[in-house]
Ubiquitin carboxyl-terminal hydrolase
Amino acid sequence: MQRAALFGSGRDAQMAAGDLGELLVPYMPTIRVPKSGDRVYKTECAFSYESPGSEGGLYVCMNTFLGFGREHVERHYRKTGQCVYMHLKRHVIEKVPGASGGALPKMRNAMQFLDLETNGDLNNDDFEYEDEAKLVIFPDHYEIPLPNIEELPALVTIACDAVLSSKSPYRKQDPDSWEEELQVSKHAKTLVQIDNGVRIPPSGWKCSKCDLRENLWLNLTDGSVLCGKWFFDGSGGNGHALEHYKEMGYPLAVKLGTITPDGADVYSFDEEEAVLDPHIAKHLAHFGIDMLQMHVTENGLRDNNIKPRVSEWEVIQESGVKLKPMYGPGYTGMKNLGNSCYLSAVVQTIFSIPEFQRAYVGNLPRIFDYSPLDPTQDFNTQMAKLGHGLLSGQYSKPPMKSELIEQVMKEEHKPQHNGISPLMFKALVSKGHPEFSSNRQQDAQEFFLHLINLVERNRIGSENPSDVFRFLVEERTQCCQSRKVRYTERVDYLMQLPVAMEAATNKDELIAYELKRREAEAARRPPPELVRAKIPFSACLQAFSEPENVEDFWSSALQAKSAGVKTSRFASFPEYLVVQIKKFTFGLDWIPQKLDVSVDMPDLLDINHLRATGLQPGEEELPDIAPPIIIPDDPKGTRMYLIFLPNIDESSVMQLAEMGFPLEACRKAVYYTGNMGAEVAFNWIIAHMEEPDFAEPLAIPGYGGVVSAGAAGLGAIGLDNQPPEEMVALITSMGFQRNVAIQALKATNNNLEHALDWIFSHPEPEEESESASDVMDMENNANANILAEAGSEGPRIKDGSGRYELFGFISHMGTSTMSGHYVSHLKKEGRWVIYNDLKVCASERPPRDLGYIYFYRRIPS
């Protein structure tokens, strides 16, 4: 099928084989055959969310294998001089009635677009796909239809075939990413279900043949619950589910305990692989299973001790209310890539803030023009792409009127682009991170800090939108015996509020509910209706401001360990205040569990009373002396002021410590697992946490003593706050620059542990000198507002009033950060809007009391 050239100057005339060869001769050196390891981006533009299914199709450079939409391919041609591109276009055609017999869409040239998804909005019985590929030579836009084996040179033919058959660049060998490779089962649409009256209870399952209660599979044809075997996910079993298939021929089964509102793990015995079942909700409903009532647990099995949180899922997603869809700029949804809702909730909120909009979308032409040769690996380019995708309205258009749709369908369906898929963005920002690079659910708070860290590291010149969250915390530590104090400051990006459970206003109801729940559990009856603890926000704020005990406090006034207390106050107030309700704690099995509470979060917040005051009249400061390191093997208990520590990845230590494990245990875990990362160290902790010396300092025989986090003060520290050279050397041995080490030690009173914290919270470009940084600022940000730099004048802050107004919150549904679902609510144009993956609707009942992370903007004075 010949089509007019997209740019109006294309040549559709057929050319003789000799003419084609002669035409391509000047460009042959630039045409490459993809090698193993080359990423071929044939499904998405590097600068936008255009794809082969878009109106203009996609252009793949035959040298770099980057994909570009029609709007951006000219930029790449001008920048690189590459002239030969493969143009890919998918057309959606209305089928001739009765021609398909209800089969899946017919794929013409199917191998060309192996990784393209079908449009879920279309009825597969009525439409089919026609895929078109051709070579386009710039700048004259000569078009050569493909395949054209007889007329094209052999090298060009091989290169084209390799591009067309290439796999997605996002495919991984990591077993955690198997979800990306699943295909729709051929049995899903035609599956026959026997009406035998079987109803599956929400818990208490066991294999009907051997009484096993783990690795259980529900056959979707007859409702049999049977155990699996060592063939799918590593879980044990006796293989009765497979035996049942061989006996009866019923092909599909779903793993019990994996059913969530987002889907479930489905296996096809006939196809011998994990598959997708687009009709899983209907198939489960046949056996009385409502997907909204099912929640996956951390080990893939249903936790029978946890009450189904039906109300939580329904209330937060506003399921019982008919919501009006929202379209246009700022109302664009994001596709869930498989437990990626935490990412969507955070970036939807981030890009509702004007400073982020200006930094990335406002600077989009400049960012795109100065992007590196591979823009898919550039953070600022992908942030600008994401921001434009969310804010332009280009991918959030209202549906056409029915009569217009009918007119269009008679010729060719023009797919409606609603929502974007953040696959390229997620692949970049999660690269190298053991958790975010997986397909497991994550903590939105941790991803928020991770994203802010990336913004800091990749800022353009002095422009840094994350400064709107940045504030200083003053920590006042007091020795209870000498009454002397020490004041220190640190940078933070969010306020963490503890949940004051003891202040619940409905304690009597909670006690009565707990009694009923235990009775129901003992009698194996359905649990009673959930009663949620109601916590006053004022109580959480009070708990935040109260003094807390300091473990292992060493008093420099007493030169010995003593009791100490610490209080935290705001040394500055940020422009945007992020408040996290600390709902997650650890259960007896060290699996994170969530406190299901309701907190009456205020629309207007005033925290001016938490402003730091500094050293007060009559207060006496603790001497500026660090604790010594005691070598226990020394019979005299000699105090050592210098010891060379082994190489320990402190970033992994901090990740584990933030999960609630003792700091010394975290250091041992990282050391004994060879600095292989936090995930490997976490497994070590789980295996050794019952040992009596679990939380004792790390003892290494070769060093003759203890290597403790208390090695914060190597050497006696003078009152001039000049860092000891051995401490500077220790930090530089970890890979940090000398000037960064000195700056961090000075900012933390030469406390090694706090200095490392300071470095990780000040992720500045360490490889640049101050002069080089100044030059970069002048070149890259000549027209930007110059913000205060983190240097001798202190960290960059935007101080002001402590009065705020709520404009957004992120909510979590589920039992822990390792499972469940996230949505965000944002206040736009005077009304609340819910962002639930691809669904963007006007909110009727925003559940402000059930949020997890709240976003406040400062009220101008």
